[in-house]
Design brief:
With 478 residues, the protein is an alpha/beta fold. It folds into three domains: 275 residues, HUPs (Rossmann fold); 131 residues, Orthogonal Bundle (Isoleucyl-tRNA Synthetase, Domain 1), CATH 1.10.730; 48 residues, no CATH class. Helix content is 41%, strand content 15%. The protein is built from 15 helices and 15 strands. A hairpin with a 4-residue loop joins strand 1 and strand 2. The two termini are 38 Å apart.
Length: 478
């Protein structure tokens, strides 16, 4: 069986055939560093990590880049038009009383810390937009030389979609939108020839100074949001990519615009062979948003006693193309799963894994089921089910089990056999408190029972009550 991926461009599963195997050129849209990254965005980055890890397991050599946007992403993008509104970085400066560069550094550092806490594979480079200004200007010049731009005085340089289509190209094939209408915008850009046209370079407003601005052939200003990704892709990965990854919200305009400006500049198509998009994360069954107060971040989770790896386990319970509903109860279940796994695997930490050629028929069947799940459009929930079956199977020996756990965690990145995270022996003092708590529960004195539960948690453990009145004690995940 070969790896099959759902290609957003063709809207079907396709066999994955790289342009130049074993190399696989991958680009993933990263964060705009004006605020903490939300758990919705983290889901997309975990998807990227699963893709990279799966390709490595299958023998490919991923060449992977991710961007960090620190300029040019305007608030109008929330309304379907990234060429209007306020720069998100400047909005953050007003909110926090810092300059844009300090804002960018603070939230970039926080993103990188969270990235590592989620134990994800770092790209060859996190491409920062402000480090690629020259490349963006050169790309706009190439598009201009093709006769596919026009200038709006006082506003910026725009990509001309109709002129692009007149060359025989199609615009917007990736998008779920049939058309982009001016009426959907909060404000109209005077001089725009077509509502689909988008800014490649924005001019500074007269009399207004920005902290992030550069000289260009068209005037002092800053790049549009879309142009940075194309510039980074073409600079680091060449004219054509194997895989481009992002959230499903980027299918409507950002990614179609990337395609148009990249293919316009290079004359080569397709710009990307396989487009992979992750579905939205819901919160309590509804949409997530900062204005709703439910755009949770890793810090919010940690304050409630959850680890980034608990969140990662939660993500693994849903297929990347299906919406996943975040609730605190669901995260608690993921946390419990993490703790139970580590309890069951503690005895394997010093076991030497079997050699692949020495596996029994049963172990080989588990390996096959795991690989089949991944190769079927990254069916991670099915692969996760294989993990649990392996853990519970007493028929395969410890060496084989260690081999399979190493294999599975090479993709999941949960650090399942990391000594630092594995459950330790429960101290007798904790057991004594748990027994005392059990008696209070029997007597219906739940206030005292809750006090002892808190005391146990303060000691780094957690009590899980069972329906039959018994309990188990697990170490709190770090």
């Amino acid at each position: 069986m070969m790896l099959r991926l759902y290609n957003s461009l063709t809207r079907q599963k396709e066999e994955f055939v790289p342009l130049n195997p074993p190399e696989v050129k991958i680009y993933s849209c990263g964060p705009t560093v004006y605020h903490y990254v939300s758990i919705g965005n983290w889901r997309t980055y975990v998807l990227t990590d699963i893709v990279v890890r799966t390709l490595k397991l299958l023998g490919y050599k991923p060449k992977f880049f991710m961007n960090i946007t620190d300029v040019g992403h305007l608030t109008g993008d929330n309304l379907g038009d990234s060429s209007i509104g306020e720069d998100r970085m400047l909005k953050a400066t007003k909110r926090e009383g810092k300059n844009a560069w300090d804002i960018a550094k603070f939230y970039t550092d926080d993103f990188l810390q969270g990235y590592d806490e989620l134990n994800m594979t770092r790209p060859k480079e996190f491409c920062v937009a402000t480090n690629y200004i020259d490349e963006q200007i050169e790309l706009v010049k190439k598009i201009e030389e093709k006769g596919l731009t026009y200038k709006i005085e006082g506003d910026g340089i725009y990509f001309d979609v109709k002129a692009y289509e007149a060359t025989g190209k199609k615009y917007g094939e990736l998008s779920d939108l049939d058309q982009v209408l001016e009426g959907a915008r909060v404000e109209k850009v005077e001089g725009r020839r077509d509502p689909r046209d988008f800014a490649l370079w924005k001019f500074n407003k007269e009399g207004k100074l920005r902290e992030m601005e550069w000289d260009s052939p068209w005037g002092r200003g800053f790049p549009g949001w879309h142009i940075e990704c194309s510039a980074m892709c073409l600079t680091n990965l060449g004219d054509q990519l194997d895989i481009h990854i992002g959230g499903e919200d980027l299918k409507s305009t950002h990614h179609p615009n990337e395609i148009a400006q990249s293919e316009a500049a290079t004359g080569k198509e397709p710009f990307v062979k396989y487009w992979i998009h992750g579905a939205f994360l819901l919160v309590d069954g509804g949409r997530m948003g900062k204005s709703l107060g439910n755009a949770y971040n890793l810090h919010d989770l940690k304050e409630r006693g959850y680890s980034p790896l608990d969140l990662k386990m939660f993500y693994l319970t849903g297929h990347y193309r299906k919406q996943l509903n975040f609730t605190w109860d669901a995260l608690s279940a993921a946390k419990s799963s993490n703790m139970k796994l580590r309890n069951k695997l503690r005895g394997l930490v010093d076991v030497k894994p079997s050699n692949k050629q020495d596996l029994s028929a049963a172990a080989k069947e588990y390996e096959k089921k795991f690989m089949n799940a991944l190769e079927d459009d990254l069916n991670v929930p099915q692969a996760l089910a294989v993990l649990w079956t392996v853990v519970k199977d007493s028929e395969i020996n410890k060496e084989e089990k260690r081999y399979l756990i190493d294999l599975i965690d090479s993709v999941f990145g949960l650090r399942l056999l990391d000594k630092e995270l594995l459950t330790v022996e429960v101290p007798q003092g904790v057991i004594d408190i748990a027994e005392e708590r059990k008696e209070y529960r029997k007597a219906g004195e739940y206030d005292k029972s809750d006090e002892l539960r808190k005391k146990i948690e303060d000691l780094g453990f957690e009590v899980h009550d069972k329906p039959d009145g018994s309990y188990e004690i697990l170490q709190l995940s770090k």
